[in-house]
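User: Here's a chain of 234 residues. Predict its fold as tokens.
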Amino acid sequence: MKKTIHKAASRGVASHGWLKSYHTFSFASYQNPERMNFGMLRVLNDDIVQAKMGFGTHPHKNMEIISIPISGALSHKDSMGNKRSIEVGEVQVMSAGTGLSHSEFNDSASAVNFLQLWILPEIENVIPYYNQKMFDATERKNKFQVLVSPRDKLVAGSLPINQQGYISMIDLDKDFEITYDLRNSGYFFLIEGAVVLEDEILEKRDALGVSEKDTVTIKANESSKLLIIDIPLT
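Assistant: Prediction complete.
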């Protein structure tokens, strides 16, 4: 087994006034040759957008982009004609493929916090795709809820991406213990709480990458919310 530990305090930080962004991997002005990716997971940004501010229209190409609101809501608009609000409990997926442009804006009176993941696609230049879905929180109470899965091996109820990756979430009660069966290699990002994962103690926004192992044991030291990115390394 190989383990890669990324503590929350070790992330890159960009502060632009209207936006505070914590970068798990190299992004924009934060460049760290030892933090370029975890396999096909290229970006994991933890963004806080101030009220009445947001990301102006900008392009993407050949990237699988997943957004997960943690608090608040974002208004989404893109070149495919989608114009929707993304709220807590929802997950948004965009396959940029041959190219698209979009904007994300915080229309509310308070700050919005969301995670944005970029995953490298296994097939380039696909027709751009967009979808979002509200997931029932009761379906991840002490069990793994698959949010995103490969288009050709789609798990029922999840959103498709063009990569052999699976993104799941679990809400853990204090002292609950569970085993996760890896399909590929796993990047475990703790959104809230405290857990012991393969003998490593993780606290809020800490992460652990695990490879060359089939199962991972997780125990919650307190009520916790954990994101699992099960992704090929190559």
